Structures are given as C-alpha cells and as structure tokens.
Amino acid sequence: MKEVMAIVRQNKVNITKNALEKADFPAFTCRKVLGRGKQAGQEMLIQPNFKTSEETVQFYGQISHTQNLIPKRVFTLVVRDDEVQKAVNAIMEVNSTGNTGDGKIFVLPISEAIRVRDGKEQMDSESY
Amino acid sequence: MLLIRSIIRPEKVGVVLQELLAEGYPAVTKMDVYGRGKQKGVKVGNVYYDEIPKEMLLMVVNDEDKDNVIRIIMRYARTGEKGAFGDGRIFVSPVEEAYTISNKKAGL
C-alpha cells in the first residue's frame, strides 16, 4: 500500500475529484493547507494591479502577515502498490498547467490499514 | 527523500519559516491541527484542555538535508533556552517518489 499525497491548486479540486473518480479512486481526503514551494511564494507578488495606494499597502500587509504562504489543497489517498502510477497520472493529467505553483505529488509507504467499522486489516490485494 | 512532519506552536511558525527560507529550504506546507501530548493537554485548575491548537509543517527534503532542517526547527521552535512542554514534536517518514505537477517530472 502507498499513500499518494498531492498538493494542488484550490481551483482544481473539483476536476481532480472527478478525475480520481473516473480513474477508480473514489476514496480520498482533501484539506485546506497553506504553503510555499521552491519559488518561496513569490508568484503571489506578480503584477498586483491596484488602483489606490491603500489597496497596495493592504495587500502587502496581508502577504507579510501570512509569510508569503499560498493557499492550496492537499489530497491524500491510499492505493495499492500497482495502482500508484495510475493515481499519479490521473492527478497530473488534470492539474498540469505548465506554470509554477501547480503543486507536488509525494508517494509514501503505508504499513497497515485497518477499517474502523469492523477492525479488519485491509490486505493489499483488496480494494479500499 | 524524507517527509518531515513537525508539530509546533502557532506563534513560532513565523520565525521558523523565516529561518528555513534563509537557510535555503523554501518549500513548506502548513496546516492547522489540534492535539494533545504526553502531558495530557494543559491543566488549568481542575480542567484539562486537551485540544491545544498547533501548526503542522510538512517538508519533503533530500536525505542529506534532514539533520540540518531538524536542527533549524529545533532551535527556533523552542521556548526559551531549555524549551518547555508543548513546544511540539518532529516526525520523519520515508518518501518513495515525488513529482512536480507543472512539468510532470519525477524528483524534488
């Protein structure tokens, strides 16, 4: 079993959900996170087109307050070993715009998975 | 590659992120979490508060950067010289693969 952790843009949540469902991964968890990447959150500073100086001051004030962190969504799903590539491709397909800030996907090992309902351990051959 | 999950005090996030950036580790994901530790939360009078707000920082780094990142977090997330209960924890787990979505390349 592997955990696929994908950090994606906020506006891509719906199409990612649909893509995962289509690729036969109905089970996942999604949550709101803040973060920055290799560019250290600088993409947010590109051309803030403000009319008044107050707006500009307010904007930069907010940025420094949040330490240049950009809001993102992180998807976590646990998949079988042989399905990792399929899940990664499904996420990559819909999220890739070719720009920085599209996000990252990490694959982590999972040693055990237990269903709370009946306490049964899930085998790698089963679906989740 | 390793995933470093650190649970730290919310008020320490600013300085930790700043120092990580200064040392050349810009990439961080942060999330709000609530939890308790070995001390069973905070006891005020007869009441235990066991859902203490913390921030979790997620970082995926190369194996050789692990010690450096942990050192930075340990140093700046600590309260006072000796540290105090509630300063948080750091967990390290292996990461097998990483992909950048924008160029579909494998690796960090």
Please provide a brief summary of the model.
Chain A has helices at residues 13-22, 53-65, 84-95; strands spanning 2-8, 29-36, 70-79, 104-109.
| Overall body shape of chain B | elongated
Residue share in helices of chain A?
25-40%
Task: Label the structural class of chain B.
Answer: alpha+beta
Spatial arrangement of strands, main beta sheet of chain B? 2-5-1-6
Task: Please describe what this structure looks like.
The complex is a heterodimer of chains A (128) and B (108). Chain A has 128 residues and is an alpha+beta fold. The mean pLDDT of chain A is 82. Chain A has a 4-stranded antiparallel beta sheet, covered by helices on one side. Chain A is elongated and about 60 Å long. The termini of chain A are close together. Chain A has 3 helices and 4 strands. Chain B has a single domain, classed as Alpha-Beta Plaits, CATH 3.30.70.120. Chain B contains 2 helices and 8 strands, in the order E-H-E-E-E-E-H-E-E-E. Chain B has helices spanning 13-22, 66-76, and strands at residues 2-8, 28-35, 42-44, 47-49, 52-61, 88-94, 97-100, 105-106. Chain B has a 4-stranded antiparallel beta sheet with strand order 2-5-1-6, with helices on one face. Chain B has a two-stranded antiparallel ribbon with strand order 3-4. Chain B has a two-stranded antiparallel ribbon with strand order 7-8. In chain B, helix 1 (13-22) packs antiparallel against helix 2 (66-76). The longest helix of chain B is centred in the middle third of the chain and has 11 residues, at 66-76. Chain A binds chain B through residues 2, 6-8, 31-41, 67, 69, 72, 74, 84, 88, 91-92, 95-109, and chain B through 1, 3, 13-14, 17-18, 21, 26-31, 58, 60, 93-104.
